[in-house]
Design brief:
The chain is α+β, with helices and mostly antiparallel strands and 502 residues long. It contains twelve helices and seven strands. 71% of the residues lie in helices and 8% in strands. Strands 2-4-5-7-6 form a five-stranded mixed β-sheet.
Length: 502
């Protein structure tokens, strides 16, 4: 099953098959050339490494031999214990290296010289050990005799090591010359193969490109004529059974279909254009409707006091010396001045807070100690824009419907804080609270702005909670801008969430 599917795929994608074969062939040639070059370079490195390893080992052996000789001379002349310890240390090190050199160089062409060096090192170590023992036995004649014999062998060892070094150098030079010549041949061969592959690729690319692009050029010319509106182009004849031939046949069928249905497509395009124009008009109407709804909601705000009369009363109280009465009347006048002048444009939260302070002054003047008003406001957030007359109706609603029936202990608070990407304004009271049905009623009906509270008795402005919610949602174009948290018998919280940066 898998073989049949692969065969079908291979036969169907003929251009892909040619491309794959071409790239596989060129990749194989380049990989073969690179591998051959790498192999020879690797062999050269191995041989060079062997050459340097033998030289380094012989030099190390010579250094160890010299240290044994030096420590021996120092001990025999001074009889210092440090020199004796160093002698034994280098003694065993030299013996180990002598054994190792015979193993590592046993197949070397200079194996006889290496064998002689090993034997001489063993003899040398025997003589040096005898000299040390004689010195420790205070036999001057014997240790001098052993030392002279050891020194003679020491000189012979150095001569043989130099001889071995020269022999190794000669052998390594011959190997290097052979390897270098082989590498030169490989480099020439590699250059030749690269040139051959480049020429082969260039010819193949030119031929392959011509075979593919010739029918594509014909198709592009025909497509260009159709794009200019000339649908009477001749059919593109491509005598190929691959994907390009199939594409040419499909193009010819497409051109024929375009000629048959061009008028219908043009008619549909005109109809679509008219529909888009109508859609734009509908969007414009919706925008105007939204703006009209905002103004309609704002028009519901109707103060019941006469501002000019209050100003006259304030002046009269001042003339009569009734300062408290004057301040009270001025605050009432300020409350309605704010109501009258700012309804048609946004205000800042700072202005709303100032209006609340004026309203609270009036409440305290009327109801004395029945209520306590407190605030917790972040002054950095007071420049945010919002609709006019939002907070005062909420505070008034909390007073009338929340704590209105309480004789004492009523508390109303305003909190302004930053919460992630929103500015949160909370008007809370400790009054009788609200039922869940009432909360759902306000939050669901607030969007229409049609249904108001049953009674506005006692309200300064006549603005209901539904009106506040609707204006907030229209102004910020968000449904989640207002929320109510309340527990029956345990107070209420009216929460406004304004997007930061407004």
């Amino acid at each position: 099953m898998m073989i049949q599917a692969f065969q079908k795929f291979w036969d169907k994608n003929k251009i892909r098959k040619r491309l794959i074969l071409y790239f596989m062939l060129t990749t194989f040639l380049m990989a073969l050339t690179s591998f051959y070059t790498y192999y020879n370079a690797r062999m050269l490195m191995v041989r060079m490494n062997g050459m340097f390893t033998s030289n380094v080992y012989l030099n190390d052996l010579t250094d160890t031999l010299n240290r044994v000789e030096q420590n021996l001379e120092t001990y025999l002349s001074t009889k210092q214990s440090d020199s004796l310890r160093q002698y034994w240390k280098n003694h065993y090190e030299l013996k180990a290296k002598a054994e190792k050199i015979q193993k590592d160089f046993s197949a070397n062409e200079s194996s006889l010289i290496i064998k002689d060096i090993r034997n001489m090192i063993d003899t040398y170590l025997v003589e040096t050990e005898a000299a040390v023992n004689a010195k420790r036995g205070r036999d001057v004649t014997e240790y001098i005799q052993y030392y002279n014999e050891a020194n003679k062998i020491f000189n012979y060892i150095n001569i043989y090591i130099n001889k071995l070094n020269n022999s190794q150098f000669k052998e390594n030079t011959e190997r290097y010359m052979i390897t270098s010549g082989r590498l030169d041949f490989v480099q020439i061969l590699n250059i030749g193969v690269i040139i051959a592959v480049v020429l082969f690729n260039t010819i193949l690319i030119l031929w392959f490109t011509y075979k593919i692009t010739q029918p594509i050029i014909k198709l592009s010319h025909a497509a260009d004529e159709i794009s200019k509106g000339n649908f009477d182009v001749d059919e593109v004849n491509v005598y190929k059974d691959d994907e390009i031939g199939i594409m040419a046949q499909a193009f010819n069928r497409m051109a024929s279909s375009i000629r048959l249905y061009f008028d219908e497509i043009k008619e549909k395009a005109e109809l679509e254009s008219r529909l888009k124009e109508q859609e734009m008009q509908n969007l414009s109407m919706k925008a105007h409707l939204k703006e009209a709804e905002l103004h309609a909601l704002q028009s519901q705000i109707n103060p019941h006091f006469i501002f000019n009369t209050l100003n006259a009363g304030a002046q009269l109280a001042m003339l009569e010396g009734a300062d408290k009465t004057c301040i009270f009347v001025e605050n009432v006048a300020s409350l309605f001045r704010y109501n009258l002048k700012k309804l048609d444009k946004p205000v800042t939260l700072r202005e709303e807070i100032n209006n609340i302070n004026t309203y609270i002054y009036i409440l305290k003047a009327r109801f004395a100690d029945r209520i306590e008003f407190y605030t917790d406001i972040d002054d950095k957030l007071l420049d945010v824009k919002m609709p006019c007359m939002i907070l005062q109706p909420l505070v008034e609603n909390a007073f009338i419907h929340g704590i209105g029936e309480m004789e004492t202990g009523g508390r109303i608070g305003i909190l302004v804080e930053n919460e992630k990407d929103k500015i949160v304004i909370t008007v809370k009271d400790n009054g009788k609270g609200m039922q869940a049905e009432q909360i759902m009623h306000f939050l669901e009906e607030g969007d229409t702005g049609v249904e108001m509270e049953q009674s506005n008795s006692g309200h300064t402005t006549g603005i209901g909670l539904n009106n506040v919610i609707s204006r907030l949602r229209l102004f910020f174009n968000r449904e989640d801008v207002f929320d109510i948290h309340s527990v029956l018998g345990n107070g209420s919280e009216m929460i406004i969430r304004i997007p930061a940066g407004t």
